[in-house]
Amino acid sequence: MRHLIVILSLAALLQSCEKASLPTWDVYDLPYELNRPQGFPEMDIPADNELTVNRVALGKILFHDKRLSRDNSISCASCHLQELAFAEGLITSIGVDGAIGPRNSPSLANVGYIDSLFWDGGVPTLELQILAPIHNALEMDSHIQDVLDKLGADYEIQRLSNLAYDRDLDMYVITRAISAFERTLVSGNSRFDQYAYQGQEDALTPSELAGWELFNSTETQCASCHSGFNFTNNTFQNIGLYENYADAGRERVSLNPADNGKFRVPSLRNVGLTAPYMHDGSMATLEEVIDFFNEGGHMHANKNELVHPLNLDETQKGQLIDFLETLTDEEFIYNSEFQLD
Ligand code: HEC
Ligand code: HEC
Questions:
Q1: Which of 94, 194, 216, 319 could share a disulfide with 210, CB 3.0–4.6 Å?
Q2: Is the CB of 95 under 6 A from ligand 1?
């Protein structure tokens, strides 16, 4: 209906001024300038979901909207908290009615750069991911139709939906808008970045620098898997966390037993904030993680042999942790652009 009114008034406008070209809703939208820190590549953004100011604004509102859950009790932001770099801080997630899920909620920092989502890489795009938590009985336990019924009656959301996507709210809009917002969650201004990419040689202490060297050494091999600007090579690896895995990991997606116990190498950005660690949240602290790698993991047929006993002493273990903590990006966790106005 509102479309019709706009078209009619535009028609009237055109009659009075014949040379004006026909504007669309897009005229009121502007491209969103994505922050691209030094050292970061260009992000792949789907052609049908270019970032605009209104798309990101709508996505931010939806990300924080508890009506996405069956009983209006939790939003995406309930399990992805900005102060924890959009991780959750629980061993595994708690959904509607206190349901306990099987996996640890990962940070969403730089999630726009990841092309196989979830710990097992089972979902290829952000747009496809959105429906998973909405429908998951252990998370939001809702149905997209219920969500559309609730939000469709909200004038402000309909207004933004039309400004952003030139259509009323539907599944297309919900999945695209939240994805657009998620792509803006770029974290690349930690003290490590100031040292490595912004030429501030004194940004790191000697202990942190020694940790960075250890991290890259042939001895530890950390950087073989946690490589590049986002500290992950985006492969799936079994690190020998268990002899028998309760969660089959990548095997659940590929159905190949050679993938049993393999999980996506997690980014280490903001890792000082994202405890507890591992796909099942089984390690409470970075100390525990470093002790684990130092001991070399458990036996498993699929274990990557780069994980092996390291014989690090207490000083070296402390240096590795000091380095990992330099990946905390304060600007990111306090950025008010990610918060509701
Ligand atoms: C009940 C807690 C909970 C809620 C609510 C929730 N998530 Fe998550 N999220 C998780 C957990 C747990 C995982 C890991 C799942 C897995 O790997 O199987 C996850 C994974 C993700 C991932 C993949 C990240 C990666 O690195 O692979 C994205 C993206 C994401 N969530 C976005 C969202 C969005 C958007 C919403 C709202 C529509 C949402 N989440 C709601 C707990 C939650
Ligand atoms: C063979 C590849 C590989 C190597 C080598 C490796 N990691 Fe990892 N790392 C992984 C994978 C895969 C996980 C997740 C495993 C899981 O959840 O089952 C992980 C998890 C972690 C975590 C927990 C992150 C989180 O968000 O839960 C930290 C911290 C970490 N690694 C640091 C290191 C350090 C430090 C080293 C060197 C001592 C190292 N890693 C060596 C692949 C590797």
A1: 319
A2: yes
